[in-house]
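quick one
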Amino acid sequence: MDLRTRYLGLDLPHPIMPGASALSDDPDTARKLEDAGAPALVMSSLFEEELSGMPLSGNTAAQGPLPSAYQQQDLRVEPDDYFDRIYALKHAVGIPVIASLNGTTPGGWLRYAMAMESAGADAIELNVYKVCTELGETSEEVERDLVSMVDTLRHKLAIPVAVKLSPFVTALPNLATHLGEAGCDALVLFNRFYQPHIDWPSLTPSRTLRFSDGGELNLRLRWTSILAERVSPDLCVSGGVTSGQDAARAVACGAHAVQVVTALYLHGPGYIEKLIEELVAALEAADLHSIEGLRGRLALGNAPQREAFVRANYYRLLRSNRDSAATGAS
Ligand SMILES: Cc1cc2nc3c(=O)[nH]c(=O)nc-3n(C[C@H](O)[C@H](O)[C@H](O)COP(=O)(O)O)c2cc1C
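structure w/ flavin mononucleotide:
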């Protein structure tokens, strides 16, 4: 079975990689992931908040001198730790290491991507986790900032750049097109938004880190299908991948790669091996011999039942439910 794929400029033996989380940061766990067959790793994020107040951070467009090297003197402890981790990981494993930069503003902090590159990262995943609360802020401004961040990184880096996107975008195909034009190499669909839990009767919002479940996958599959073969960035599904068959579904919709996190937390790093076996079994069951032969079969432009991904599906679903309720009532 030929599981090879190309994602973010990287030739990978198969498409299932550990997504961003602290799992990939520890060299011992990273080695276990590699031994189980992980084709690449995404590190946990370096957050804009960790860099704020530092000499290189701010809300103005990135300008001026860039961090020359990974040992830059004026980096404080947290980012230094992060660059040390990249360096340690690159020595611990032979697979590509994707560093993750997480923030919201097109500010000087983006220049830390340069230091990530200097420390040995093979690619950068930019996670723009923005919760828009300002009444006067328009979606156009938010999207323009995102495109400008990619543009900034693209001009400063030689390594590929992926963007991990929010699902809450009104016109995703248009944004994806602009990101591609700005030089974005891949889109990771999607970020998960962690919602506060409201405790009762104290009415206290609390933080909860909830693992995902398979129910989150279909949203990703739909948008992968809609974007596939129509926008220039590669596509990677992240969220709700619980089995090798899920990975096959993502590839069928047009994904070049898939990321898993929850499944690895629940079952351990060795689970990658099982996911790969399941992916092979899924292809065999469909009488397919390669990932390339599967990719995009359910892309919107190719899908025999194109309407499954668009409004017609919604209309028919609700209509048939109404009809059967009426039949049941009579
Ligand atoms: C414990 C934990 C830590 C995470 N850390 C990060 C992170 O640092 N940066 C990031 O972009 N996503 C992070 N994520 C989100 C995951 O990369 C992923 O988007 C999400 O868990 C959905 O994938 P899954 O369904 O396979 O878990 C984290 C998720 C978990 C559960």
